[in-house]
Design brief:
269 residues; 10 helices; globular; transmembrane; Probable membrane transporter protein; TM_pro_TauE-like
Length: 269
C-alpha cells in the first residue's frame, strides 16, 4: 500500500514537473508531509524528510523533463551553464540552513514563499515578455543561481518557482523559461539531496529505510512513475498559451502555500 501511494505521488508530480518546470517538489513536499505524519514519524524531522526526499526525486524528473524539452529545442543551454555552479553550491548550503530550522518554521516559510510567487506570476499572466530585455552578465547569473539554489533547497523544490520568473523578467518567453528551468532543477536536486543526506546523517535520523533525511522507498516509488509522466507534461506545455500556463502555475502555488500556512499557524494557536 505504501509503495502504491508513492507511485501515485510520482505520477502527479512528474506531470507537474514537465508542465510547469517546477520539478514536482511543490506537490511532493505537502503529500509526503501528510504520508510521513500518518506513518507516525518523529514530528520534528517530518518536514526535513519531505524536503530531502523531494529533492532526491527531482533528480529523476529533471532528467526526464529536460530531455523532452531539449528535443523541441527549448532549453537555453548557455543560460544553464551560467546558472548551474551557483545553483549547486547554493542548494548544498540551503540544505544546511534547513537543517537548523524547525519543521514549523519551514512550513511557514514555504507557505509565504509559494503565495508570494503565485501573486507575482498571476499578476503578470497577461503581460507579454519584453523582447528587448536581455539576460544579465555571466557573473550576475552565477550570483542569481546561488540565491535560487539556497531557496530551492530550503523549500524542497527544483527551482522552477524562482527560475521561471527570473528568466521571464529578463525577456525569456514562458515555454523556454520552463524548459531551461527544468534543466536547472538537476544541479539543485543533486546538490540539495546530497546536502540533506549529509546533514541528516549528522543528526542521526532514527527512521527505517532512510539515508539522512532521504526516504529510500519514497524516492524509488516516486521516481519510477514521475520519470514516465514528466515527458507527458513537457509535451502538453507546448500546446498551451503562456498566459494560461502562468495562471495554472499561480493556482498551484496558491493551493500549496495556503496549505502550509494553515499547518504552520495551526501549531502556533
Amino acid at each position: 500500500m505504501e509503495l502504491i501511494i508513492y507511485l501515485l505521488i510520482g505520477a502527479i508530480a512528474g506531470f507537474a514537473a514537465g508542465l510547469f518546470g517546477v520539478g514536482g517538489g511543490l506537490i511532493i513536499v505537502p503529500i509526503l508531509y501528510i504520508v510521513f505524519t500518518q506513518m507516525h514519524y518523529d514530528p520534528s524531522i517530518i518536514m526535513h524528510m519531505a524536503l530531502g526526499t523531494s529533492l532526491a526525486t527531482i533528480i529523476v524528473t529533471s532528467i526526464s523533463s529536460v530531455s523532452a524539452h531539449h528535443k523541441k529545442g527549448a532549453v537555453l543551454w548557455q543560460v544553464f551553464r551560467n546558472l548551474a555552479p551557483g545553483l549547486a553550491l547554493g542548494a548544498f548550503l540551503g540544505a544546511g540552513i534547513a537543517d537548523y530550522l524547525s519543521g514549523q518554521g519551514l512550513q511557514l516559510l514555504i507557505g509565504c514563499f509559494a503565495i508570494w510567487v503565485a501573486f507575482k506570476m498571476f499578476r503578470g499572466a497577461g503581460v507579454a515578455v519584453d523582447p528587448q530585455r536581455r539576460m544579465p552578465s555571466a557573473p550576475m547569473q552565477l550570483a542569481a543561481g546561488g540565491g535560487i539554489g539556497i531557496a530551492s533547497a530550503i523549500f524542497g523544490i527544483g527551482g522552477g518557482s524562482l527560475t521561471v520568473p527570473y528568466l521571464n523578467r529578463h525577456g525569456v518567453v514562458m515555454q523556454k523559461a520552463v524548459a531551461t528551468s527544468a534543466a536547472c532543477g538537476l544541479p539543485i536536486a543533486v546538490a540539495g539531496a546530497l546536502g540533506f543526506m549529509w546533514f541528516g546523517k549528522q543528526a542521526d535520523v532514527a527512521v527505517p529505510n532512510t539515508i539522512g533525511y532521504v526516504h529510500i522507498y519514497a524516492f524509488i516509488g516516486i521516481s519510477v512513475m514521475s520519470f514516465i509522466t514528466a515527458k507527458l507534461g513537457a509535451k502538453v506545455v507546448h500546446m498551451l498559451s503562456p498566459a494560461m500556463l502562468k495562471k495554472c502555475f499561480a493556482c498551484l502555488l496558491t493551493a500549496v502555500g495556503s496549505y502550509f500556512m494553515y499547518q504552520g499557524l495551526s501549531q502556533l494557536f
